[in-house]
Specification:
Layout lengths: L3 H44 L7 H11 L3 H5 L3 E10 L6 E8 L4 E7 L3 E7 L4 E5 L3 E4 L2 H10 L8 H4 E12 L2 E10 L4 E7 L5 E10 L2 E15 L2 E11 L2 E12 L12 H9 L2
Antiparallel strand pairs: 1-2, 1-13, 2-3, 3-4, 4-5, 5-6, 7-8, 8-9, 9-10, 10-11, 11-12, 12-13
Length: 278
């Protein structure tokens, strides 16, 4: 039989042993949970949306990476030749385009399948002539679309030609993240540009368009950038609209070429319907 002191000593010893084991278990549990806490904090931080850059910064960065403002300021016009493949046509067409900084432009499409199609503007009247619909004068939304579509280097001159630009988020273009920038022309026409997040280059453009069934979008993707006269130019452009796809592969790009005066003047057929109002 043990005495009271021995009972007390045994009880205290046992209690101390249990407390030590519990303390050690809690300590190891705390250490094991620490990496989980760190991982959780990292996941939470990654889940937070990073602030978007300003549209002005995205556009300025694109101008610099494409050659710089000084280079573009010295470009007054551009003449290109390209081969066009249209999903609804059996064969290719040859395209010659002249764009000017002041606004006038001329596009000639020659195809064995449909003949000759022309688009143009003298800086005021925007027109089209094709073998099916004949001569037409563009008005309203379509006039604004053609002026932006065939405007010379509008993103490079964004401070002059747009009254407001906004970064609307990140979207995926060609399986890569791209900043979405919406720009509003001086007459309130909205153009949406997509700039690759990594390269800063323009990879897609969207233009609202008017159709017989209502408004739709014309989408143009740009790739195969090459250096021409100190600037970057996309030699491959794919246009999609109303379920059709048009691929333009550029063969030549020239700047500051001599343009005959009559090349950008209104064709006789357009002058006639302009006078009659038909």
């Amino acid at each position: 039989m043990t005495n009271d002191k021995e009972d007390i000593m045994i009880e205290n010893t046992c209690s101390g042993t249990k407390a030590g084991e519990i303390g050690r278990k809690r300590g190891w549990a705390g250490l094991a949970a620490f990496p989980l806490l760190i991982l959780g904090a990292a996941i939470a931080a990654a889940g937070q949306t990073a602030p978007l850059p300003k549209a002005e910064s995205i556009l300025d960065d694109f101008v610099e990476k494409s050659g710089g403002r000084a280079v573009f300021d010295n470009i007054s016009n551009r003449r290109t030749t390209s081969t066009m493949k249209l999903s609804v046509l059996p064969g290719p067409a040859e395209v010659t385009t002249i764009l000017t900084k002041t606004g006038p432009y001329r596009v000639v499409v020659e195809s064995q399948a449909i003949g000759k199609v022309e688009y143009g503007s003298d800086g005021r009247t925007v027109w089209e002539i094709n073998p099916i619909a004949g001569p037409q004068i563009k008005e309203g939304l379509e006039k604004k679309r053609f002026q932006c579509l065939y405007g010379l280097d509008l993103p490079m001159r964004w401070r002059e030609v747009f009254k407001k630009v906004e970064c609307r988020g990140l979207e995926t273009v060609a399986e890569k993240p791209a900043f979405k920038v919406q720009a509003f022309s001086l007459d309130d026409y909205p153009v949406t540009y997509y700039f690759d997040q990594a390269s800063g280059l323009l990879v897609k453009i969207e233009y609202p368009m008017e159709t017989t069934t209502g408004q739709s979008l014309q989408e143009i993707t740009l790739s195969d950038y090459r250096t021409v006269d100190g600037t970057l130019f996309p030699y491959l452009q794919v246009r999609r609209e109303l379920g059709r796809e048009m691929t333009l592969t550029f063969k030549s790009v020239e700047h500051n070429v001599e343009i005959p005066e009559d090349r950008l003047a209104l064709p006789e057929a357009i002058r006639k319907i302009s006078k009659t109002g038909k």
